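Usage

Read records sequentially. Each one opens with the input sequence:
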Amino acid sequence: MKKIIMSQLLNGTTLDLLLPVRQDELNRFMNTLFQKAKIEKAVDLNGELLKMSNNVISRMLMSERCSENEDEAGEMRKLVTEITEIAGKFNLSDH
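and closes with the structure output:
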């Protein structure tokens, strides 16, 4: 699994192709901060950064945003944690 991710998703060419995705999500993040600042509303940076990260990852993998609000971002974090735990277990074929 790690080899596939490193060779297919995180290689230089793929990252270059997906630059617009990362830029778009960063712009959305900045616009959210700007809109909340304009109305003098407090911002949960941890939640907003989590939402942005989740959306970047899901758009890179599935071409679809996964979290529009805090609840979806939290659910996605739990899912990613579980997947990371399963995928991160020692596998003899990785070495």
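Summary fields computed downstream for this record:
- The radius of gyration is 16 Å.
- The helical segments are 2-9, 12-17, 19-38, 45-62, 70-87.
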